[in-house]
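Can't paste images in this forum, so I'm doing it all in text. The chain is below; anyone willing to post the predicted structure tokens underneath?
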Amino acid sequence: MPETAPFAAPGTATEVEEGTALTPKFDADGLVTAVATDAKTGAVLMVAHMNAQALAKTIATGEAWYFSRSRAALWKKGEKSGHTQRVVELRIDCDQDAVWLTVEQSGGACHTGRRTCFYRTVPLGKAGAATLEFSDERVFDPKAVYKPS
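Text version of the structure:
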């Protein structure tokens, strides 16, 4: 696959918002925010980022690819854990600066061993310091899956 993505150049606001050309609006770091949700339950699994290459690979393969800001590297979801994401649908928002992937998730989506990265809730309506409550159990042992390389 080519290193550059086959995306059209952005046009007017009307063309971007009402047209059929995919013209992602990457930020200053060359990224768009990507939200992945479970195709069966609708649960938000994770939020990550994509550069042009990750978005192009996702479209071409039907498997989720992302760009790791901490490692400054392209990565296929599940390349280490085996917990892949098969993309069922990919949508882009109105001004094309965020993507939404509806996926079939194998195993857990979160590196902490949980099904979703959103495994804690913030209780509402309480004064004082905000706290977190766990809402999901681990579905796999991250120490067993992510071995040091």
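The domain at 31-111 is CATH 3.10.20.810 (Ubiquitin-like (UB roll)). The first strand starts at residue 32 and ends at 38.
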